[in-house]
Sequence to fold (217 residues):
Amino acid sequence: MRILIVEDEPDMLRTLSQAMREEGHAVDEAVDGPEGLYKATEWDYDAIVLDGMLPEMDGFEVLRRIRLIKKTPVLMLTARAKVGDRIHGLDTGADDYLAKPVDLNELAARLRAVIRRSQGDASAIITIGDVQIDTSSRRATKAGAPIVLTGGEYPLLEFLALRRGKIVTRTDLYDHLYDENDTPMSNIVDVQISNLRKKFGAEFITTHRGQGYCIDA
Fold:
């Protein structure tokens, strides 16, 4: 999944970005309110981690403006831990709220949860026929047998599974699986789709010619 982290403290930004990349996310960064607002409204992210205390435009104002045009899940991350601040953030449109100092494992779990909820899934386990995908452990099984997935195959599988029953375009896949600094090979999606079909069955992922790919619900 592709996420945006808006944080003005360099060490914190570096720590958060590295941790979320290790979780398998593609990560874009912004260091102030205007940059965060620009990226949040120009690109479609699966989730945004937004610091409340930002230079030039605070996170609450950034969130208010995002909510005028986008429904992207937003997790507020800030040192403002008073109940009133949390209420203000949630009422402004935040999907979750986490106070600093942050436990990185909790942040990762909360991000997984808000992304699932945004796609209509409450459970961490996605079941499609005899295939089960555990979004918390990033593992999959078929008929109870574990399937070995590469670091590139799992995000693609999860992205399609969360949108099962819907056609996903190639552009969507590139936009959500790679960050702004990535330059993936032009055929990487085709290669990974082919590999997933070999592991889960030729009919598991359907190609809709000229439209995209779909995992049937």
Notes: The helical segments are 10-22, 33-42, 59-66, 83-92, 104-118, 153-162, 170-177, 188-200. DSSP finds eight helices and eleven strands in the chain.
